[in-house]
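Chapter summary example.
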Amino acid sequence: MGYSGWAEIGPGDGWVVALDGPGVAAARALVEQLGGAVTFYKIGLELVMAGGLDLARELVGGGRKVFLDMKLLDIENTVERATRMAA
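The structure predicted for these 87 residues follows.
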């Protein structure tokens, strides 16, 4: 099995919500607003670089599934903003 946060999309998972914004606070607010209606989240590169790995750990610790979308071959604006966050 490997990594405890490994997530596979199953038939009961419903929606996967993308947390692709530039800020962790806004992402947390969205997760809170959605409550138990969503169990699977995608965290994009920009949010990862803005501190989203801690958010991913929190989500997994709370029983949710997380897909970290950290590819660098993406939309130019996304890569530019993520690079700024990393810097």
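To summarize the output: The CA atoms of residues 39 and 62 lie 10 Å apart.
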